[in-house]
Amino acid sequence: MSAHPAAPTPRGLLATLSQSLPMPLQGTLRCEPEEMLALVGPSGAGKTSLLRCLAGLMRPTEGRIEVGTSVWCDTAQSLFVPPQQRQVGLVFQHYALMPHLSAEDNVALALLHLPRPERLRQARHWLEHVHLKPEQQRRRPAELSGGQQQRVAVARALARQPQLLLLDEPFSAVDQLSRLKLYQLLGELRRELRIPIVLVTHDLSEARRLCDQMVVMDQGQMLQQGSPAALHRSPRNARVADLVGIQNRFEATFETDEGEAPRTRKAAAGPRWFGAAGAAAVQTLCGCGCGTKEKSDRAPP
């Protein structure tokens, strides 16, 4: 028998939030270690606000946020861990680099708790980790390409060895070639770090390509979570179908006897098509398979 106890199974992210102001947020999400989860939805859906709550930059009205074995927020217990005390890495959409500092000094800002020589040593380590050459590490942001600046931002986020990595549309400001290289870098990092990663994106193809799970959001509501394949196969309702890009939705009607309860199960299995007018009760179904129903008084065609 081994003399060493088995290492504990790493735990991921579990967040339940509820608020109406300043931005409505409602729902629950889960992201396991080594998983990448995409938040998708239209502008104003609440994706960045949710990310800010996870990072500790915004305090939710009600909710609980657990990462690993730590509780970062529990409003029922009046518990709120400030962002500087959370082991979280955040990569902003437009990098948020200090323009007057070199790449290595930008990364060293995340390590102010260490003596300067150690800060610079670790900063160089993480910049090498994201494949920046030594001469690039000494340049200021204006002297770097967009893809190189994004690598500096990723290195800074990783420097504090986070339990959770948050990416707010990190690829939107780089060209296609740089984006593909950053995809490859992110794939390497997720296998190595073994932490939950949450990505905000408007690009559905990017979410399907990179992520294990997607959370579809609209007007602050977390409508559905699942794998990209599951969401496309079984969207919860017509709005989810719209937001994940399903085009082959159609309307169908089925007949029930007047006064009877709708035959939901039968309709979901296969609606009965009308060939002539004269049905007493008609319901309109979402053809994406979600079973959404709306009462209609119009006669069938």
How are the SSEs placed, and which strands pair?
Layout: E1 13-19, E2 25-31, E3 36-40, H1 47-55, E4 62-67, E5 70-74, E6 79-80, E7 88-91, H2 103-108, H3 116-129, H4 134-137, H5 146-158, E8 164-168, H6 176-193, E9 197-200, H7 204-210, E10 213-218, E11 221-226, H8 228-233, H9 238-243, E12 251-256, H10 264-269, E13 281-286, E14 293-296
Parallel strand pairs: 3-9, 3-10, 7-8, 8-9
Antiparallel strand pairs: 1-2, 1-4, 4-5, 5-6, 10-11, 12-13, 13-14
Question: Could you characterize the architecture of this molecule?
Answer:
It is globular and about 80 Å long. By secondary structure, the chain is an alpha/beta fold. Helix content is 30%, strand content 24%.
In short:
The chain is α/β, with parallel strands linked by helices and 301 residues long.
User: Can you say what the CATH homologous superfamily of the largest domain is?
Assistant: P-loop containing nucleotide triphosphate hydrolases
**What's the CATH topology label of the largest domain?**
Rossmann fold
Radius of gyration: 24 Å
| Helix-strand makeup class | alpha/beta
**C-alpha end-to-end distance:** 74 Å
Task: Please name the defining characteristics of this protein.
Rossmann fold, 10 helices, five-stranded antiparallel sheet, alpha/beta, 301 residues, globular
